What does this fold into?
Amino acid sequence: MNIRALSPLDRILCGLERALETVAGSPEAHRPSPATGLPANELDETERRHVAGLIRINHTGEVCAQALYDGQAALARSDANRAHLLQAAAEETDHLAWCAGRLRELESRPSLLNPLWYAGSYAIGALAALVGDAVSLGFVVETEHQVEAHLAEHLERLPPQDDRSRAILTQMQADEIRHADNAQEHGGIRLAFPIPQLMHASSMVMKTVAYRI
It folds into this structure.
């Protein structure tokens, strides 16, 4: 059976489909939620709103991760790097679905600005890919390190009894560490000043806004 290789236009169209699914659809997880089977311990209204804000930040972070990987994969210079990026994106889809499910449990919603976050992250990913695979993978390494750090912060800020959110964020943290290690093993380089600092500043803006909007 002949399998036609995807052209650049094909990849763009596939990317648009993934963008719509990420921002407006209901992505399905390939793995069960880590919260499965855990009790839904009671949260008061203040705690519920706080947890929803934290989970909304992480949901938005996964929207950004999808966009970053999609932008990088669309313009990756090697098939091997493209396959690596798409595999990581598939695992990030799990995170997206887990966070979306937890938001529904908390009677809350994703960030209203997710289309904007997606567009900006896609542009960054595409730009990094144009520079080269080593820089593109370096963005993955730095992004995952920063995400792992903010997940550690969020785990500390969760109410002690919120076992369901804690299980989700703990598994996400482990996956992000592995993604960073894999990207480094595939040739990701350390990004030069001031790129990591700018990435951190932009993530702080996103976290502040997404917590509420």
In short: Residues 29 and 193 are 36 Å apart (CA to CA). The chain has a mean pLDDT of 87.
